[in-house]
Amino acid sequence: MIELIYFPPPDAQKAYQLIQFHTGEPWNVVEDGELLASIEKLNGTWRSMGDTKLNDLLIQSIGVLIDKQHFNRLPLEIKKHWTEYVQEAIAQGDNQYMVICKPEIDFNRFEKVFRTYIPGLVSDDWEIRFRVYNAEMSSDFEVFVRHKLLI
What we know:
Blueprint: E1 2-6, E2 16-20, E3 27-31, E4 34-42, E5 45-48, H1 56-68, H2 74-81, E6 86-91, E7 96-101, H3 107-121, E8 128-133, E9 140-146, E10 149-150
Parallel strand pairs: 7-8
Antiparallel strand pairs: 1-2, 2-3, 3-4, 4-5, 6-7, 8-9, 9-10
């Protein structure tokens, strides 16, 4: 689950809770415990799924906040950085990621490379957990990064 808080300008007295229960699912927009809308990005535009109590401008502003979050970009950066090693990288929240390697790679070598270079890709200030699996999901390792340092 990923949770964000959105403070719409200029009314900073109001706050919306943005909740995504699973990666790839729509975001729920909640105010004071009431579900106002479920939104999703389709063809590059943020839209409400079904009935909503929010106007289009507010939905677009909320979408801008979601798009700016690093957890949306980091899986793509991991796959791009290690194209010969990584089959899939999945955000499981804003502080944890699952990485699945390609078959027939040297998994032990990749662990050393990953531990060395992953701190340089992380820009978040909080602790991030990476769980890395081989292609068969029979072997794994964990890496924790905070402030661009392994911990």
